[in-house]
Amino acid sequence: MKLSYVAKRIVKMDYKRMWDTTKILKARSGKSRAWLLCDMLACAVKYNAGYMDYKIAAMYSLTDAQRRTVITRGISNEIVRRMNDKAYWHFFDDKTQFDKLFAAQVNREWMKIDDSTTAEQLESMLSKCEDIIAKPLEGSSGVGISKYHSADWAGKAAELLETLRKNETGIIEDVVKQHHLMSSLCPTSVNTIRIATLIGDKAEGIVYAFLRIGNGKVMDNVDCGGMAARVDLESGKLLTVGADKAGNTYEKHPMTGTPIIGFTIPYWEEAKKMALDAMKVVPQVRFVAWDIAITENGPVFIEGNSFPSHAIPQFAAHYPDGIGIMPEFRKFISNI
To answer: Has residue 74 been placed in a domain?
Structure first.
C-alpha cells in the first residue's frame, strides 16, 4: 500500500509548488533547497508524507523517532479506508442528508436548492432568517461558500435564486449566531470546534479537539486564512497558540487582542456529549470529525466529515516536543 500510494503521488505531484515550498523552508531552517528536497522525498517513501505534511509538521527539524509520530496524508488516508465504509459517506458528504439525519443537533432553518426550487419557496425560507450561508452540496475547506444578508434579497428572491443556481449552490442555511465569548475571539466568522471521534478496535471516544478561529474572513477554515488551537479534552481550555497553515503563530488574536492560550470554550461538556452520541448514529463510519458551533443556548452541528483533514492536528506549533498526534490514535486502533 505504501509503495502504491507513493507512486500515485509521484505522478500527481505539483512539482512547482513543491520547489516553491523548499524556498520557504530554506529561510526557516537554514538548510539548502537541495537538502530539503532530498529529505522531502525520503519522508515520502518512509512516512507517506507529502510536501505539505513536511512543511506543516516541520519534519525537517524532527528526528526519525519524532517523524514516526506524525499522521501524514498517506497514513490518514489508510485510517479512513480502514475505519469508514465508503457506501455510507453520503450521510456526511451530502449536506442535506447530514442536516436531515442530525436535524435536532443542526437546529436551524435550511433548504436544498435545485431545479425544482421556486422563488416562493425561497422567499418563505428567507422570511425566517436575517442572514444565510450558501454552500455546495458537497465539498470542503470552505470552497464555494458565500454569505448573504437580508438586504441582498429584500424583494429580490427570484434574482437571488438565479444567483444561487449560477454559483452551483446546493443548500442554504440560516447563519448560526455564536456565543458572545466565541465572538470575542473573532467576530467575522463562526469559530467552530473540530471534535474527532473514533470507534476503534481498542477503544472508542474522542481522539482530539481543536478550535478553528477565523482571521477576518467569513470562514474559520485554515485553508481560508484561519488558525487553530488545541483543546484540552477535560477542561475545554485552549492549550496552545493559534497556528495557521502558513506557519504563523498567535498568542493573542491579531484582530481582537483576545488571548488564545487558556481561553475556555463555553458548553464544552455538552459539545463533547453531542459528538459522542452522534458517532453511534452511522456506525459504519467510525472516524468522523464533527464541526460544532457554540450558541448562547448550547452547541449545534455545522457538519460532519467522513474524510477528516489531517492538517489541523499536525501543526508543528501544537507539538513543541516534536511528538505528533499518532500516539493518540494508537490508544484507539491497532497496527498504525
So the answer is: no
> What pLDDT is recorded for position 15?
74
**Which grid cell is 150?**
437580508
How far, in Å, are 93, 127, 146, 189, 214 from residue 149 at the CA level?
A: 26, 12, 10, 14, 19
Whether 228 maps to a domain, the answer reads: yes
Q: What is the pLDDT of residues 93-129, one digit of tens each?
A: 999 999 999 999 999 999 999 999 999 999 999 999 9
Q: Give pLDDT tens digits for 54-94.
A: 999 999 999 999 999 999 999 999 999 999 999 999 999 99
Q: What is the mean pLDDT of the chain?
A: 92
User: Is residue 205 located within the same domain as residue 240?
Assistant: yes
Are 237 and 269 contained in the same domain?
yes
Q: Is the pLDDT of residue 138 over 80?
A: no
pLDDT confidence of 1, banded at 50, 70, 90? very low
CA pair distance 29, 23, nearest whole angstrom: 10
